[in-house]
Write a structure and sequence with these properties.
- With 349 residues, this protein is mostly helical.
- The protein folds into 2 domains: 2-96, no CATH class; 110-346, no CATH class.
- Helix content is 60%, strand content 7%.
- The chain has 11 helices and 6 strands.
- The chain has helices at 2-5, 28-38, 48-70, 79-95, 113-126, 131-151, 160-186, 196-222, 224-229, 245-280, 287-310; strands at 13-15, 76-78, 231-234, 240-244, 316-320, 342-346.
- The strands form 3 sheets. A two-stranded antiparallel ribbon has the order 1-2.
- Strand 3 and strand 4 (240-244) form a beta hairpin.
- The protein is globular, with a radius of gyration of 23 Å.
- This is Sidoreflexin.
């Protein structure tokens, strides 16, 4: 903790506030920069004790800002202090659960995604497409995603654990079924005799289609309560208004699209790129250089793939009043009496 607090007392200071976000999350590139920072694989290397130190540091800084405001003073910090705050926010953002305040297990953190997904992507794209290999790698992938969903779940939702369990079962079953069926229909025994590059493209395509179907099933099952009862809407003043099934469908479709993009970035694209390079003779011929090249290509695509996919939509969804149910189209805000033009809702990741 002492290393976090160390700074030059004579260093120049500048105004700072926690209420001003570091990135503009209203734009795609603003969200992309945010997620690239949060999901940086190096963040996963922080120890639990280091995470607790950062958490305490942020709590202390927020308390100092409150005291400064109460005294009518401007809150000022050095560049070093601001740098530490940004570092702490990037690590805590993917390591600490926002609802419980508990440290998320290492393998369930978004910042650990590259290390956990890499062997799965290798198995999905490079393993010989036998029945056993297909079942194992798709089951393993959906098991990991179920853990990822649980670690980053909405802990205020009592039914979320049950929903994740049902969604995992449905997603794993649909992913395995689709992968086995597609590989049987599209390739059959001939897939086992394909040249390496073509087999990689075949594996990547069938795995992507299976994961896309599983993503849709996962979202529909896990969020079936929201689709049935609606998702809570808020007006521009953050006042709760009611539940909307139309907004719920928008949230689920956007979430499914995000996972579709993720499967494309983490399985289809790297497999096809490596397959094409193999067919063109651009990959190294030695086993070790080839393996290093393949892992490097996949690793780079995983590092950027997760942030690029999640950044497509803001976590805070928006829907115009004229597009929701009739009972919400003429609602007026309690704060100022003006008619609501745009509603907000928590889309989820």
């Amino acid at each position: 903790m002492s290393s976090l607090l160390h700074h030059d007392k004579d260093a120049a200071t500048q105004p700072f506030t926690f209420s001003k976000p570091r990135y503009n999350t209203e734009t795609y590139f603003g969200r992309l920069n945010l997620y690239l920072t949060l999901f940086n694989p190096l963040n996963s290397l922080a120890s639990d004790s280091r995470i607790k130190d950062y958490k305490q540091y942020l709590d202390d800084m927020r308390a100092r800002e409150r005291l400064a405001k109460e005294d009518g003073k401007e809150f000022r910090l050095t560049k070093h202090q601001i740098k530490v705050i940004h570092r702490a926010q990037s690590i805590l953002g993917s390591s600490v659960h926002p609802d419980t305040g508990n440290v998320i297990p290492w393998w369930q953190r978004m910042s650990s995604f590259v290390f956990c997904q890499l062997p799965l992507s290798i198995g999905l794209t490079m393993a010989t497409p036998t029945f056993g290999q297909t079942v194992f790698w798709h089951w393993a992938t959906q098991s990991y995603y179920a853990g990822l969903n649980y670690g980053n779940r909405n802990a205020t939702n009592i039914s979320s654990t049950i929903s994740i369990g049902l969604a995992y079962t449905a997603a794993a079953a649909s992913s395995v079924f689709l992968a086995v069926t597609l590989r049987k229909i599209l390739g059959g025994n001939a897939a086992l005799k394909m040249r390496l590059g073509n087999q990689l493209i075949f594996n990547s395509t069938t795995s992507f289609l299976a994961m896309a179907g599983a993503a849709a099933v996962n979202s529909l099952v896990m969020r079936s309560d929201e689709l049935k009862n609606g998702i809570r809407l808020y007006n521009e003043l953050n006042e709760p208004v009611g539940l909307s099934r139309i907004a719920a469908w928008q949230a689920v479709l956007q979430t499914s699209s995000t996972r579709l993009f993720l499967a494309f970035q983490t399985v289809f694209l790297p497999g096809v790129v490596i397959g094409v390079l193999n067919n063109r003779g651009y990959m190294p011929r030695g086993k070790i250089p080839r393996a290093v090249s393949e892992i490097g290509i996949m690793g780079v695509m995983l590092v950027v793939g997760l942030p690029m996919s999640i950044a497509f939509f803001s976590q805070e969804g928006k829907i115009r009043a004229k597009r929701v149910e009739k009972e919400f189209r003429e609602v007026k805000r309690q704060g100022d009496g003006k008619r609501v033009e745009v509603y907000h809702f928590n889309r989820g990741l």
